[in-house]
Amino acid sequence: LHDALVALAWLWEHGPPIGGVAVAGGVAGGTWRRCAADAVYVVGDSAGGGLALCMISALALGELAPGVPLPVVPRPPTALALISPWTDLSASLPSYSTRAWVEKSLHGDCIFSNGGDLASEIEGTVRCSMKYAPRELLQDPRVSPVFLPLPLLRVWLPPTLLVVGDAEVMLGDATELAARAL
């Protein structure tokens, strides 16, 4: 999260390349601007989508974590595009149960499946989350941004495109965020 916020601040300060594309060791056909960017758009898929939203949560709450100050970031991204964002690292939303893979009916999310043992699948998700943050922080909005308090979400969330499939266990991560943002 800290690295993502530092990168966001750098992009705001330096802007995109002029007249070219970034390549290893420099920019082909142009140079980096030395002035502020007009806009910064962030795209994230799965955990990257969650990280993009964690940046919004941290900025809204004014902290990287409880009691940990933010790096200096001029403002949030201009807009977000999120593909199947993982916003609930506690796996507490209903779709973690309702979209679990059922072999017999060939229904549900076959990507995130542990042989149809629902309790094991959810616990596996939480164990994976705990590689990122301790269990007691899994519902902190800087870790699981779907839990950002509603007033802050509505003020801080920039225009956002959410893309998610109906069979995904993370369907609730996107639909809950969308419902709360309206």
Describe the 3D structure.
By secondary structure, the chain is of the alpha/beta class. 34% of the residues lie in helices and 14% in strands. The strands form three sheets. Strands 3-6-7 form a three-stranded parallel beta sheet, covered by helices on one side. Strands 1-2 form a two-stranded antiparallel ribbon. A hairpin with a 2-residue loop joins β4 and β5 (68-69). α2 (47-61) packs across α5 (150-156). The longest helix has 15 residues, at 47-61. It is elongated.
Give a quick set of tags describing it:
182 residues, alpha/beta, two-stranded antiparallel sheet, 6 helices, 34% helix
Summary of the model, kept short:
This protein has 182 residues and is an alpha/beta fold.
Can you lay out the helices and strands and say which pair or pack?
Layout: H1 2-14, E1 21-23, E2 26-28, E3 41-45, H2 47-61, E4 63-65, E5 68-69, E6 79-83, H3 95-98, H4 118-129, H5 150-156, E7 160-163, H6 171-181
